[in-house]
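Exercise 7. Predict the structure of Zinc-ribbon containing domain-containing protein from Laceyella tengchongensis.
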Amino acid sequence: MLLSGKLNKIRTFALLLIFVGIGVMYIGFAFPKLMALFFILGILFVLASVGIYFWIGILSTQAAQVVCPVCDRHTKMLGKRDQCMHCKAVLSMDPKDAPAPADKP
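Solution. The predicted structure, encoded as tokens:
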């Protein structure tokens, strides 16, 4: 469930950048002569994460909100194809991807 939907994938990447940044800063304690370099590098990772969170927040406000036909919950879609954030069902706004109607006898 953590990586379902484009929005959540980007948010997960930004969270990973925060942990990497803190880890790089922590590694700086092992190398006292290079501590400032590791600290600056870690800060850059964290600032990149802040930028990504800001960007994804702007994208999230512009994303189309749809109701998933599988789980009947509201989810946001980026682009023409995306996954439901709750049940990972593939959603599409393109009519070509719509399921074929069943033949009625």
